Amino acid sequence: MQLWSEPEWLTLKQGRLLWWPDAFAADAGAWQAELEQSIPWQQHRLMMFGRELNEPRLSCWMGDWPYRYSGRQRAPEPWHPLVKEIAGRLERICGQPFDGVLLNCYRNGQDSMGWHADNEPELGRDPMIASVSLGAGRRFLLRHHQGEQRELWLEHGSLLVMAGQMQHHWQHALPKMAREPNLRINLTFRRFAGTG
Ligand SMILES: O=C(O)CCC(=O)C(=O)O
Ligand SMILES: [Fe+2]
């Protein structure tokens, strides 16, 4: 009987995913409890149709370099020791270092993230994005620019790595799940293209 799943590479049209549902199952509860308490979660604002709105989630940018998106720049928070440790685990799995991470806190199923690609120029061509999920399981949607769609279930302790040309040909989103009462934390690790 196999108790622990193995990481599996899924090949998509113009992209690759490493999918490992219980990668961190043994640590996920402790990680969630600590990060919920000790990350300086912030409510950021976004511009939508000419109006400023609260982002439908809390977040925190951490690492070695500032994060630019939607024309704004965020200074990084210093590495939290546990987040640094997780970055080290991911480096061994993915075979490359990570020097920045966006932490997202979805307070319940009303929180979400819209369609986007992680294609900031800082990340360079074909970036590897390693995403760790803690807490409530949520749907994760992928869509290719020619129409193909995929859906994954991101559960507590899972790892999803987007690699290859994913960020150039696919977008991803975390839709609302109205009846989900529980919190989810997600960490998406990235690497600044000028380093490592
Ligand atoms: O919460 C998630 O699983 C997705 C987060 C994401 O796409 C991002 O931070 O760029
Ligand atoms: Fe993303």
Distance between the termini: 39 Å
Whole-number mean pLDDT: 94
Name given to the CATH architecture: Sandwich
Q: Percent range for helical residues?
A: 10-25%
User: How are the strands ordered across the major sheet?
Assistant: 1-2-13-10-15-8-5
Number of helical segments with 4 or more residues: 3
> What general form does the structure show?
globular
Main sheet summary: 7 strands, antiparallel
Q: What structural class do you assign from the helix and strand content? A: mainly beta
Bound molecules: 2-oxoglutaric acid, fe (ii) ion
Total domain modules: 1
- Radius of gyration equals 16 Å
Note the run of SSEs as H and E.
EEHEEEEEHEEEEEEHEE
**CATH top-level class:** Mainly Beta
* Oligomerization status of the protein chains: single chain
Structure report:
- This protein has 196 residues and is mainly beta.
- A hairpin with a 4-residue loop joins strand 11 and strand 12.
- It has helices spanning 28-38, 81-94, 166-169; strands spanning 8-12, 15-20, 45-48, 51-54, 58-63, 67-69, 72-74, 100-106, 113-116, 129-135, 138-144, 149-154, 158-163, 170-174, 184-190.
- It has a single domain, classed as Alpha-ketoglutarate-dependent dioxygenase AlkB-like (Jelly Rolls, Sandwich), CATH 2.60.120.590.
- The model has no long low-confidence stretch (mean pLDDT 94).
- The strands form 4 sheets. The protein has a 7-stranded antiparallel beta sheet.
- The protein contains 3 helices and 15 strands.
- The termini are far apart.
- Fe (ii) ion (FE2) binds at residues 116, 118, 172, 188.
